[in-house]
Hints:
Layout: H1 5-22, H2 29-36, H3 42-46, H4 50-65, H5 69-76, H6 82-98, H7 100-113, H8 117-140, H9 147-165, H10 175-186
Amino acid sequence: MARNDARRASLADAGIRVLAEAGARGLTHRAVDIAAGTPKGTASNYFPRRDDLIAALVTRIGERLAPDPAAVAAESSSLQDRALFAAYLRDVVRRLRADPHVSLALFELRIESARSPAVAMALGKWRQESFEADVDFNENAGLPGGRAEIALFHYAIDGLMLDHLTAPLDTGLGLDEVVDEFVNRLLPRSAE
């Protein structure tokens, strides 16, 4: 079969919707075909095993969550300080909020990874590579904070998004305010 990247991406996007709406247990090749509006068997032609489908969804989630290179370049011309670091984090939260299906699908995969070694392997590899890329980006950009602080921000943003997407606490704080408070509390002033 000839490689059709647009069809592959469309199927992965449909799989993300299925994960977000039906959970990991509802993720089947047939459910992806129905969500994509493709003939029965199309998803299994592109992703013969469920593990192949999961790997494609992880890759597609990464593509959809990637920052806009132009926005990163524009921001990088600013002073490398806590305010710029906070701006980058607000952008991460904005991207996670922009498409709740992607964020919910990611949480579904994280829960499924506790039950499935194959999912844990695919998702764990992507998460670790993403974390290392964040640490490298932060270091190369001359931003404050190091590996430990980046890990703390990952944990904090994960919790913030899980709260926002499910049964959120009514704290009176906007998401940008929360991110700014994370930065103020997790980055020591001496990190500037």
